[in-house]
Amino acid sequence: MATKTSTPSSQSPKLSRLRPQYIPNHIPDSSYVCILDTTLRDGEQSPGATMTAKEKLDIARQLVKLGVHILQPGFPSASNSDFMAVKMIAQEVGNAVGDDGYVPVIAGFCRCVEKDISTAWEAVKYAKRPRLCTSIATSPIHMEHKLRKSKDQVIQIARDMVEFARSLGCNDIQFGAEDATRSDREFLYEILGVVIEVGATTVNIADTVGIVMPLELGKLIVDIKDNTPGIANVIISTHCHNDLGLATANTIEGARTGARQLEVTINGIGERAGNASLEEVVMVLASKGDHALNGLYTRINTRHILETSKMVEEYSGMHLQPHKPLVGANAFVHASGIHQDGMLKHKGTYETISPEEIGHKRTTRIGIVLGKLR
Known about the structure:
- The protein is built from eleven helices and ten strands.
- An eight-stranded parallel barrel has the order 2-3-4-5-6-7-8-9, surrounded by seven helices. A two-stranded antiparallel ribbon has the order 1-10.
- The chain is globular and about 65 Å long.
- It folds into two domains: 34-316, Aldolase class I (TIM Barrel); 332-373, H-NS DNA Binding Protein (Irregular).
- By secondary structure, the chain is an alpha/beta fold.
- Helix 8 (247-256) packs parallel to helix 9.
- Residues 1-23 are annotated as: Disordered.
- This is Pyruvate carboxyltransferase domain-containing protein.
């Protein structure tokens, strides 16, 4: 099927459901899933994917148009240019009111280091809903070889830095357990309990090296819910990498078992093999949420997905595989004669998602690529 980007004139049918009230540590509707987009932070860490401040601002505006709940537009202490880009996005995008009255959360990423946290706060504090996302590694291999810290030292750092973030006036603080999926369970429950006690509002469980399978990730989320003190008072988040090609599947399983914030990037760009792909995660929830996932939903306007994907591809220079699900050039192309025959008779034979749902526009009457019957 030949396609081109359309300018959507109507909202996705899923948007009939209202976005819940913003509360930093609680989502009033247990079926609602927050999407945190980290294209401008983790996504930009793809080799060669550096973007200008203007390009970042353009993408941030587009992400709001898409309906993203939380934007993580950068790592302010990484460089002055990153600081200025995050500040600019916080000032403009972080105060823009959407058609549904929603204002996006603007989240600054920072290590568990006072200078990082202070710098991130200086960048995001101009937003109406600022967040600090502070992170430290919790796995034995990271603590021993990278941090060179004991478990007790890491716990104390995490406690002190969340308290410090609170002291700056921030009431929306995300604590990230880097390499959580390779961490000792009892230690993970302990450190999460400590940061919750001192004011964390979201806890992020990172599969930093993309090593777990969906059953393992789901079991981890269930175990955290069952064993972490105070976990009912915060939002559980996942951050999945794609090293084994399981980032989307792991992210969906995390949501199924209780995570209500999902960290993703447009086109799945990111470190090494990338991150969970926003378009894949969102469309799984859109197409399977009611029937297989107990009614889970987002407020993403899926009809803006293709437009957003093309923008990120152009600005990042990260070109898509033709067979990339949903947004690749071949995603809705039918070349096999058998498939063409089915499509001519009824599009539902080989099309479970309408291309129009993500912003494609059919450019021929029959909407398929004709080929030779064999």
